[in-house]
Amino acid sequence: MAGFRIGRPDTVITLTTPPLTSVYGRLLKLSRGCRHFIWEMDVYPDIAVDVGTLDSRSMLTCVIGALADWSRRNADGIIVLGEEMKARLIARDIPENKIHVAENWADGAEISPLPFPAGALVVHYSGNLGLAHDIETISAVIQQYANDERFQFVFAGGGSRRQIIETLCREQGIANAVFRPYSTRAELGTSLAEGHLGLVMQLRQTCGSIVPSKTYGIMAAGRPVLYIGPREATPARIIHRFQCGWQVNPGDSVGLANLLEKLNSERHLIFEAGARSRQAFESHYDRPIAAARIIRILGLEPVKAQAAVSDLRNIPAVETASGRHKTAAAS
């Protein structure tokens, strides 16, 4: 409710968690005469339908979709995290000229490259492992390489689908799969550096309803991205553009196993891709660069832009500017 308590904001930015926050932004625009931008982190109700928590034909889904699209069509602009997310909104009949693509970021000051570890080839997953993530492909490969000392699989974080993998490994006595709690922001760089490959996973059907943001932390750490997901998604596009990792189709456990064998025997491919990953990050995805990208889309005046960039540098990538400097975030 901060948007109603502070002085009239110039611009209101609403996020997508909780769902339909954009409706609140639309009401602020109507009542306060301010501009309203929607920052789409996830596309609702699409993501809920994609992971099976909502029926695409249910009344609730239709109501959520109608309200979300009403606020989208009446917003001054919509910021999305990738081209596939833009395509999702266009498919919902949202005018293309309202939609601006601004990929996410990580903080290169907090996460910097550290030396690669010696020993077993480590596939490292960091963060939440939930309903939108493909786990079947990596689970098959973990079972194939159960207790093979050449490979280690590390899962640092939590989530409902991580529990499935952890239970599988415990029941089958797989010792080369390691499970750790979430890292703090201060520990994240060190945690990511434990891996040779940073793992990103996505279900095929969620392409466009989400865009995995952990890609950018992996790149900041100077690690190649190992992406199990559709070729049309942003992580696959980044990998192809910068040659900073490898993409595997969901379900292709044979292809993934063959890739890991190759990379284990030719470690220089990992080191070279890791260097390209950090270079691409510094040129395109570090926090100041990404913050400036958002500011350009918002079209703020120079003084307000400088203040808003300062706010963006002090918050995680999935958050936005605070109500200070009369840029209100309803989240």
Could you explain how this protein is built, in words?
This protein is an alpha/beta fold and 331 residues long. It has two domains: 2-105 and 286-330, Rossmann fold (3-Layer(aba) Sandwich), CATH 3.40.50; 121-283, Glycogen Phosphorylase B (Rossmann fold), CATH 3.40.50. 44% of the residues lie in helices and 16% in strands. The protein has 14 helices and eleven strands. The chain has helices spanning 2-5, 21-32, 46-50, 59-74, 83-91, 136-144, 160-172, 188-192, 214-220, 234-242, 253-265, 267-284, 287-298, 302-313; strands spanning 11-14, 35-39, 77-80, 99-101, 121-128, 151-158, 177-180, 197-201, 225-228, 245-248, 327-330. Strands 7-6-5-8-9-10 form a six-stranded parallel sheet, with helices on both faces. It has a five-stranded parallel sheet with strand order 4-3-2-1-11, sandwiched between helices. α2 runs parallel beside α4 and α9 (214-220) packs across α12. The radius of gyration is 21 Å and the shape is globular. The N and C termini lie close together (10 Å). Mean pLDDT is 90; it is low at 315-331.
List the helices and strands and how they pair.
Elements: H1 2-5, E1 11-14, H2 21-32, E2 35-39, H3 46-50, H4 59-74, E3 77-80, H5 83-91, E4 99-101, E5 121-128, H6 136-144, E6 151-158, H7 160-172, E7 177-180, H8 188-192, E8 197-201, H9 214-220, E9 225-228, H10 234-242, E10 245-248, H11 253-265, H12 267-284, H13 287-298, H14 302-313, E11 327-330
Parallel strand pairs: 1-2, 1-11, 2-3, 3-4, 5-6, 5-8, 6-7, 8-9, 9-10
